[in-house]
Structures are given as C-alpha cells and as structure tokens.
Amino acid sequence: MEHRLEIETMGKIKVFGPQRANGEITISGSKNSALPILAATLLTDEKIILHNIPNLADVNTMIEILENAGKKITWDESSLIIERYSNMNSVLPYGPVRRMRASFNVLGPLTIRNGYAKVALPGGCSIGVRPVNFHLEGLKKLGIESQIEHGFTHSKFIGAPEKVHISLPFPSVGATEHLITTAVLLDGTETILTNCAQEPEIVDLCNFLISMGAKIEGHGTSNIKICGVKELYGTEYTIIPDRIEAGTYAILGAIMGEKVTLNNVIEEHIFSLLDIFEKIGINYTMKNNILTIEGISKLELSPVDIETATFPGFPTDLQPQLMVLLSLIPGRSSITENVFKTRFNHVDELNRMGAKIFVEGNTAIITGVTKLSGAPLEATDLRASAALLIASLIADGETIINNVDHIFRGYEKLFEKLEKLGLEIEYYE
Ligand code: EPZ
C-alpha cells in the first residue's frame, strides 16, 4: 500500500451544499502526538514499534527527516517499525524541516546523541509568528549552545549541570516537548520544568518515553521533573486518538448532522468543547469513548463568548471550525484568540460566504446569520481548510476551495470518512 503523500501542486475541492451528515466514523491517531514521539525515537538505536499512527503528510515528512538521520522506517498498516539503518547523521536537509515546524524538535535529541547538530530554523506559518526562543533558551540551560547561520541552527553539547530549572514564559507545547525529549538522556542531571504545557499530547509523549526507560514525574501538570538516564531502550507503544480531528467532526455534526457517531474519542481530551456544546444547547451523548451528536435547528441554539487557551482550556486548533458554527447561531457571539493572537485568516473567507464577523484586536465578534452561500475560497492553513470545508458543506450552492492540500497534513482518510457520513465533495488538481 503506497503510504507517501507528496504535496507538489495545491489541489482544489468543489462542494455543492447544503448537505446533511449521517453516519459513523472512527477517529485516527493523533498527529500532534505522533510527531513529537517520532522525533523522540532518535534517543535510542533499538527497535521501536508505534501503533495507531495516522497516515498524514506531516507524519511522512517526519519519517523523511528520521530516514535522513539514519533510521529505517517501515509501515505495517497503521503501525511504524523504526530501526537503526546507519550511523546517526545530525546534519539534516533544509527542505523537510523548513516545511514542518514540529521537526525542529529533533535538534535536542540529535545534539545529545552526537554532540552536535545542524537543523533548519523552522519558519512561521499563516497562523502567526512562531519563534523558537523558548526552545533555544531552555536547551542552553541544558548545556546545548546554538547559533543561527544561513537559516540553520548549529548546536553543540557542552555538558549539563547537575540541577536545571527552566520556567517557560508561556506554556508552549513544542518547547515543553523539546526540552523533555532532551533532558531524559542527560545522565545525572535533574531538570525541573515549570509553567509547562499540560496537553494530552505531552502526557502521551512522556508515557512513551517512560516506556523506553525515562524517569519523568508530573506530566499533565504545569511542573515536570526529569531525572536524566544514561540510556533509553526499544519499546512498543500505542498513541492516543486525535482530539482535534474528533472536535472537527463533532462541530461538523453539530452544524449539519442528523446523527453523527464518532468512535475512539477520549472524553477528558475534549471537555472544553463539550462544555461549549452544553452552553450553546447542542444534543450529544458521550459514553465508552463514543461521541454521538444529534443536530437540531440553529434557531434553538444560544450565542456564546469563547476564549482559546492552553489545555485544559478551549484549543486554538478548533477555533476556526467553531467560528463556522457560531456564525450560524442567532445573536452575538465572540471568540478571543489567546494562543495565536492573529489566527483569523479564515474570517475574510467566511465573510465571503455571507457570514458577519469582524475582528477587533485578538477578538472576533460574530453576528449570527440564517445561512451561508457558496463562493470561491482560499485556504491558508490546516485548521482554516477544515473550517472552510465544513462551511462549504452547509452553504447554499457551489463552493470551490483553492489551496486545500493543507488539510491532508492533519485529517487522515478524509474522503473515506466524509463518504461514511453521507457527504459528497470533489477533489481535483
Ligand atoms: C503546537 O504548536 C501544535 N502543533 C499546534 O497545532 C497548536 O496550535 C499549538 O501547539 C498550540 O496548541 C503540534 O503539536 C505539532 P506553542 P507549537 O509552542 O508547539 C509562542 C495544528 O493545527 N512561542 O504551544 O508550535 C508561539 O508563538 C497545529 O495541528 C514563542 O513565543 O505551539 C505561540 O504564540 C497548528 N516562543 C505560543 O507560544 C517559542 O519558543 C504557543 O505556541 C515557542 C512558542
């Protein structure tokens, strides 16, 4: 089965709406767990087997990077077998790292294992400026000196002190993951991370590292303690389901569902969304990792004011999708974006469809309309693409979404799942 998804030309999606969703799908493994866990496989040469890995463009980019670093990686259905292929190479090609920010997290593990590394500096993307200063400042405290030259980060390990305390200025997911994945192999060093991220993907990464022999406490809280060890070992591990994919299909069900059933959903991971559903008045049942949404008339729903926040707050990665729902609820709602303050590229596109949304600072004010109408749209990033796809399925008439391939970075088996929900879309290049 051909697994590699290469994105050369950006494709388009054509949709005729409005449509109704009805059916049952299973949520895939988490992209944002798979990526940091794959980066962490650089911490050992022993064999690692990972299960429930989603077949996504981003995962294949990470595989390409690990292969460049000396790994041999084989797919077996939705599992990956990761083995050492050659001596570790810690000078990585520019392209794949530049293409995907999460790959920057290979820098720490490569530098600890090889004493040095050369990795491209990740860029920002359309959701906002995305510096890596927290990463580099934390790595420095762990004994890794870095210099930026010609778009690359050149790093070298100069030795770590016995005790390190790192307090993150903001609970950054990427910086927390990067520093944990580095500190675990600092033999004899005790690292205390405070104000760190508490996302379920962090807990999953730590459970994976512990299964390799790492010593970690406090994961899932804002204070994590890591006692570095000399060596880490091979393991077999199953990653968590994707809470953002689950949230996306749940919102789709709330907007156009008759009855939409999502299997393999962890309730604790989507509490904040379920809270909002209750405030709005959406009918849902959550039992035994199965979430069922029964659509009701938007006229019966209530507007709300929402703020995005780090976990356990409402995730920024569901903000664009939720905005589509709120744009169809009578009255005035608002969304304040606190994680990526300029993450509003989807607003103009939704207004092109007849939504009434205006942005003031980092708050979007949404006045509900009774319907959206189809239009030619531009997708700018992964979650904006998902939001525009949902909007096009409920809008009257034809919509063309250009530059839509972003969506393959984060939604596995998209066409198959939409078909199972009775939804029709057409993809073309
Ligand atoms: C992770 O990105 C996710 N990506 C993002 O999901 C998600 O939006 C984000 O966390 C927030 O939840 C992956 O897990 C692969 P951050 P990350 O570091 O780690 C600032 C998706 O759609 N910051 O928590 O890059 C930063 O600018 C993606 O799946 C610094 O200033 O996010 C932002 O404002 C999109 N300096 C805030 O912190 C740093 O060194 C949070 O960023 C690092 C971050």
TrEMBL record:
GO MF entry, a single one: UDP-N-acetylglucosamine 1-carboxyvinyltransferase activity
Entry binding sites for UDP-N-acetyl-alpha-D-glucosamine: 101, 317, 339
Entry annotated with the keyword Transferase: yes
CDD domains: UdpNAET
Catalyzed reaction equations: phosphoenolpyruvate + UDP-N-acetyl-alpha-D-glucosamine = UDP-N-acetyl-3-O-(1-carboxyvinyl)-alpha-D-glucosamine + phosphate
Residues bearing the modification 2-(S-cysteinyl)pyruvic acid O-phosphothioketal: 125
Key words of the record: Cell cycle, Cell division, Cell shape, Cell wall biogenesis/degradation, Cytoplasm, Peptidoglycan synthesis, Pyruvate, Transferase
EC number(s) from the headed UniProt entry: 2.5.1.7
Catalytic residues, chain numbering: 125 (proton donor)
Pfam families named among the record's database cross-references: EPSP_synthase
Ranges where the Enolpyruvate transferase domain occurs: 17-418
Pathway(s) this gene product operates in, as recorded in its UniProt entry: Cell wall biogenesis; peptidoglycan biosynthesis
InterPro entries assigned to the protein according to its UniProt record, in alphabetical order: Enolpyruvate_Tfrase_dom, Enolpyruvate_Tfrase_sf, MurA_subfamily, RNA3'P_cycl/enolpyr_Trfase_a/b, UDP_GlcNAc_COvinyl_MurA
Location of this chain's protein in the cell: Cytoplasm
Binding site for phosphoenolpyruvate: 31-32
Record keyword Thylakoid present: no
Family: Belongs to the EPSP synthase family. MurA subfamily.
HAMAP family per UniProt: MurA (MF_00111)
Its biological purpose: Cell wall formation. Adds enolpyruvyl to UDP-N-acetylglucosamine.
Protein name, per record: UDP-N-acetylglucosamine 1-carboxyvinyltransferase
Organism in which the protein naturally occurs: Marinitoga aeolica
